[in-house]
Amino acid sequence: MDVELVKHSARDADVLFAARVSTKGEASLADVDADAEASAGLVRYLMRDRHGSPFEHAVMTFYVSAPLFVFREFQRHRVASYNEESGRYRRMRPVFYVPAPERRLVQVGKPGAYDFVEGTPEQHRLVVDRTQQACLSAWQAYTDMLEAGVAREVARIVLPLTLYSSMYVTINARSLMNVLSLRTRREDSTFPSYPQREIELVAEQMETAWAALMPVTHAAFDQGGRVAP
């Protein structure tokens, strides 16, 4: 999973002036370049009492390359703007996701109370073999249709969810915290989450980039049990 921060307007100070306009009005303009470290208490207060709107003024755009099934999970959040590579307008690339040996394969437990454990070598070989077979067959069908003159938007219907695509995601810090609260697994989270590992790999890279931009806000998010304000 590849994630790249391509542009941003995101600083801890952005949270401060947005919050202070409620009490200072036009005088909050003096806080646009405020020292966020000196005002970490205000950030923690906003996070703790879930005054979330000031965090919406910090915005990031990420480029993400991942399998289609990861995108479908991500877009369920409906809290970001997305533009994705289109199989209608370009020929897709024959790049497919195949689980690595360390990918846990066996689900233990029932919905709402389950975990994943290591699979056997035999199970991993089965997953790899069948995935490769399905992808090769689907790609052959796709290229056969294209070569026969079938439109790309029709030929693409046979391609599997393991196909890689790319998209831009523009998201504010509040919405990103919502995503991270659900798509990363942390033992110290107030509300435990059990994300699919592939989308967690994307979320972890986004969090690393965001934490570097807004360390005070990220620390408050962690200290508050990773609950989005």
Automatic annotation (TrEMBL):
Catalyzes the reductive methylation of 2'-deoxyuridine-5'-monophosphate (dUMP) to 2'-deoxythymidine-5'-monophosphate (dTMP) while utilizing 5,10-methylenetetrahydrofolate (mTHF) as the methyl donor, and NADPH and FADH(2) as the reductant. The gene is thyX. The active site is at R183. Its EC number is 2.1.1.148. Homotetramer. It is an enzyme of class 2 (transferase). Gene3D superfamilies: 3.30.1360.170. One of its GO terms (biological process) is methylation. SUPFAM superfamilies: Thymidylate synthase-complementing protein Thy1. This is Flavin-dependent thymidylate synthase. It comes from Aquipuribacter hungaricus. The keyword Membrane does not apply. FAD binds at S53, R76, H77, R78, E84, N172, A173, R174, N178. HAMAP family: ThyX (MF_01408).
